[in-house]
């Protein structure tokens, strides 16, 4: 489960097969680890311990030089314990009085100044010195992330570091310049720790802060970059990083318990009183989905399964990637193959998240749907009598899955697997006509036809976009309509749109091949939101004003009409609400945040995990697709772009700072995040997706969806350039 709520985490841990209360303190650690990593299956490594060294006060003689030498030589207790726990150790000098050592894998000199001033007589650090040390900490987090580190322990070494940390922790209400306020009482080590925590949080690393300086760094990071503390696991520990090292084995233990412990099976009398729903989970690459896959689903329904969940699998990390269609095409093909089979749900979660959910975890994820049965081919149970089946050896927790999970075993008619090879809870299903998807892909690559092993709609889509041919997949293609059947969507409050729909009513069908939308761009956006999952091309007919997404005219018969289909992306929008809950939506045109009070919004912009603009002061920020570039984005000063342009538009509304702000074009592969810098409720923001309000938000993360896109159809006379010019230079009003 991705980004579980605190209640979901607690329920998951409470259901583990352990003595009542037997996890003790480990339960609290496991809960923190799940929350920090946003998953029910966290990890304790790879890990690194970073110790920032600094001197404090007016004394010009270093009191940490011996400790630095002992740590870098491996002679100190901290170095010995780091090696014993498999933890990489690095010492970073950010502000000592001692001379720098030669650079080595265990030591870096990144001094911002030698020692810090006497906080009793004046500022310990200037704002610029604090920022420089903060940047040094950020750099360490980036280096750790680049090295594959997942857990980053951090602390400081230096006389009076704990005293300085307590002064910093006592500050809760910094002014507009928090760097100057914290620098006045802090030190270079605390500043570097704050930078490390802030950047590590952006990069998705878990931070273990066991000492007072590390907790002070997390305190500063949360004030400077709200939300950074969400990935911090705090603890009380010994100085010089010993506390963090002693806590790491507990993290390992918690991660192991969460990953390998079975869940307790609770037999509730109330559940026995109700008929149990039987749910089959059918996973695979579906690259492409075949008529055999469809036959399996139909037979499962005939055999009494109330629901069949078809779940295309995401990329695996334990083997080579063999699929040859991009996730968005696999998602479309799967929807087309199964959309008209009653009782079937196509679950695109793994494709959308680019992850692979182990079969064992599906019971926890989908268990509330009913009694879960895993659909597997007969070769998965071969060798079961000797515990050498694919389920035993390739599935996570395979031995437990074999003993406790339910299976539907597919086999050719007359070739059932040996009874001794079958798991304890299984049901056999004879299905003929199996063909490897690799054979179909090879046949298409060699200029053959995917039919009759795929459905007509799947075959048409494969040919339309040249899938499996080795050719570049086009963003647009031309087709001639043959026997079109329509689903008609008209703006119900527009008499003009309703009149325009009448000539096409004779083509309406319960089994449509295209969606005809009559009205303006708003009607098209609503139609896309409601019907994109039908995976049918949208044809627009303008019955509104400008109609940037609409045709000006279409022949009533549509037969043999030439249409240019533009394949256009949708954006996935993940928003975090003020209470910590997360909502996920899709946008075709744009998504934006704006101020929700009389105060200007203070926002941070991240692109691809890196902060590009630390603070934007204005009314709001917006990301638009090419289809949305002619709407609200244009009102913010952005230039409309062609529908086929592979870009996102980033625009701001009434931006006061940074000065001279201008809209920018980003590649459509970019991941863009807006995060409010409001931490006292003074400057709330609210979010919108395609003009629809989602209410108050803390942040919004936007990227191109890996499972959702839309085909818009236009007649050849549709002129993108002319339409763009009309949107930018509308006709003047008559005098």
Shape: globular
Helix content: 25-40%
Q: What is Rg?
A: 30 Å
Largest sheet: 10 strands, mixed
Total count of helical runs of at least 4 residues:
23
- Average per-residue pLDDT, rounded, comes to 85
Please tally the β strands and state the result.
Answer: 28
Derived structural class = alpha/beta
β-strand percent reads 15-25%
**Low-confidence regions:** 266-273
Ends: how far apart? 62 Å
Overview of the structural elements:
Mean pLDDT is 85; it is low at 266-273. The N and C termini lie far apart (62 Å). The strands form four sheets. Strands 13, 14, 15, 16, 17, 18, 20, 21, 25 and 28 form a ten-stranded mixed β-sheet that branches. This protein has 735 residues and is an alpha/beta fold. Helix 5 (127-146) crosses helix 7 (178-185), helix 6 packs parallel to helix 9 (212-224) and helix 13 (327-338) runs antiparallel to helix 19 (456-464). The chain has 23 helices and 28 strands.
TL;DR of this structure?
Helices cover 31% and strands 24% of the residues. With 735 residues, the chain is an alpha/beta fold. It is globular and about 90 Å long.
Draw up the topology in text.
Blueprint: H1 6-14, H2 25-37, E1 47-54, H3 65-73, H4 77-84, E2 88-95, E3 107-109, H5 127-146, E4 151-157, H6 161-169, H7 178-185, H8 188-202, E5 206-209, H9 212-224, E6 232-234, H10 242-260, H11 269-272, E7 278-284, H12 291-302, E8 307-312, H13 327-338, E9 344-346, H14 349-353, H15 359-366, E10 371-377, H16 390-394, H17 398-404, E11 406-411, E12 426-430, H18 437-445, H19 456-464, E13 476-480, E14 486-490, H20 495-501, E15 514-519, H21 521-531, E16 538-542, E17 562-576, E18 582-587, E19 590-595, E20 601-607, E21 610-618, E22 620-624, H22 632-635, E23 647-653, E24 664-667, E25 672-676, E26 685-689, E27 692-697, E28 699-714, H23 720-728
Parallel strand pairs: 1-2, 1-4, 2-3, 4-5, 5-6, 7-8, 7-10, 8-9, 10-11, 11-12, 14-15, 15-16, 16-28
Antiparallel strand pairs: 13-17, 17-18, 17-28, 19-22, 19-26, 20-21, 20-25, 22-23, 23-24, 25-28, 26-27
Helix pairs in contact: 1-2, 2-10, 5-7, 5-8, 6-9, 8-9, 13-19
């Amino acid at each position: 489960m991705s980004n579980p709520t605190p209640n979901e985490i607690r329920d998951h841990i409470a259901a583990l097969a352990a003595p009542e209360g037997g996890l003790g303190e480990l339960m609290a650690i496991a809960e923190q680890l799940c929350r920090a990593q946003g998953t029910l299956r966290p990890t304790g490594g790879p890990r690194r311990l970073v110790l920032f060294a600094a001197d404090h006060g007016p004394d010009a003689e270093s009191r940490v030089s011996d400790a630095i030498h002992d740590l870098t030589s491996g002679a100190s207790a901290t170095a010995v314990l780091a090696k014993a726990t498999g933890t990489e150790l690095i010492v970073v000098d950010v502000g000592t009085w001692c001379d720098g050592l030669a650079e080595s894998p265990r030591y870096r000199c990144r001094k911002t100044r030698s020692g810090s001033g006497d906080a009793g007589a004046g500022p310990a650090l200037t704002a610029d010195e604090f920022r420089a040390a903060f940047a040094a900490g950020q750099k360490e987090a980036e280096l750790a992330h680049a090295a594959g580190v997942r857990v980053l322990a951090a602390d400081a070494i230096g006389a009076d570091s704990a005293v300085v940390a307590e002064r910093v922790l006592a500050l809760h209400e910094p002014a507009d310049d928090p760097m100057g306020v914290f620098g006045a009482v802090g030190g270079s080590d605390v500043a570097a720790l704050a930078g490390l925590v802030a950047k590590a949080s952006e990069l998705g690393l878990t931070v273990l802060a066991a000492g007072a300086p590390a907790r002070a760094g997390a305190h500063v990071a949360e004030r400077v970059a709200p939300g950074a503390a969400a990935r911090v696991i705090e603890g009380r520990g010994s100085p010089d990083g010993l506390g963090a090292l002693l806590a790491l084995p507990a993290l390992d233990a918690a991660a192991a318990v969460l990953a390998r412990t079975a869940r307790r099976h609770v037999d509730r009398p109330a559940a026995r009183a109700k008929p149990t729903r039987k749910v089959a989970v059918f996973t695979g690459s579906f690259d492409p989905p075949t008529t055999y896959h469809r036959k399996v689903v139909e037979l499962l329904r005939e055999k009494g399964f109330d629901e069949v969940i078809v779940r295309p699998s995401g990329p695996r990390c334990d083997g080579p990637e063999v699929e040859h269609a991009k996730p968005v095409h696999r998602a479309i093909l799967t929807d087309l193959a199964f959309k008209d089979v009653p009782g079937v749900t196509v679950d695109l979660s793994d494709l959308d998240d680019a992850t692979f959910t182990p079969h064992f975890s599906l019971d926890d994820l989908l268990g509330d749907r009913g009694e879960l049965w895993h659909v597997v081919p007969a070769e998965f149970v071969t060798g079961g009598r000797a515990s050498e089946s694919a389920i035993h050896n390739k599935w996570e927790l395979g031995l437990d899955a074999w003993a406790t999970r339910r299976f539907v075993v597919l086999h050719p008619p007359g070739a059932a697997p040996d009874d001794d090879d079958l798991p304890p809870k299984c049901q056999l299903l004879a299905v003929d006509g199996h063909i490897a998807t690799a054979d179909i892909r090879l046949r298409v690559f060699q200029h053959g036809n995917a039919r009759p092993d795929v459905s007509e709609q799947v075959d048409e889509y494969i040919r339309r976009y040249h899938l499996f041919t080795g050719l570049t997949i086009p963003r647009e293609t031309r087709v001639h309509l043959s026997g079109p059947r329509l689903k008609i969507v008209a703006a119900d409050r527009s008499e003009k749109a309703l009149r325009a729909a009448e000539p096409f009513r004779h083509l309406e069908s319960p089994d449509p091949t295209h969606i005809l939308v009559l009205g303006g761009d708003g009607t098209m956006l609503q139609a896309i939101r409601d019907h994109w999952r039908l995976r049918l091309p949208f044809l627009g007919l303008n019955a509104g004003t400008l109609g940037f997404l609409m045709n000006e005219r279409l022949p009533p018969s549509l037969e043999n009409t030439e249409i240019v289909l533009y394949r256009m992306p949708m954006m996935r929008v993940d928003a975090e609400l003020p209470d910590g809950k997360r909502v996920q939506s899709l946008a075709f045109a744009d998504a934006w945040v704006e101020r929700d009070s009389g105060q200007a919004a203070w926002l941070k912009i991240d692109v691809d995990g890196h902060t590009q603009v630390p603070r934007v002061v204005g009314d709001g920020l917006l990301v638009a697709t090419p289809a949305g570039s002619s709407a609200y984005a244009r009102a913010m000063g952005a230039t409309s772009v062609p529908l086929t342009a592979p870009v996102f538009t980033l625009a701001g509304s009434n931006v006061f700072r940074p000065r001279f702000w201008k809209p920018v074009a980003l590649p459509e592969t970019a991941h863009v995040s807006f995060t409010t810098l409001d931490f006292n409720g003074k400057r709330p923001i609210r979010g919108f997706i395609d003009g629809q309000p989602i209410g108050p938000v803390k942040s919004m993360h936007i990227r191109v969806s890996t499972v959702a896109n839309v085909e818009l159809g236009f007649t050849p006379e549709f002129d993108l350039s002319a339409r763009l010019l009309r949107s930018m230079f509308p006709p003047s009003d008559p005098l």
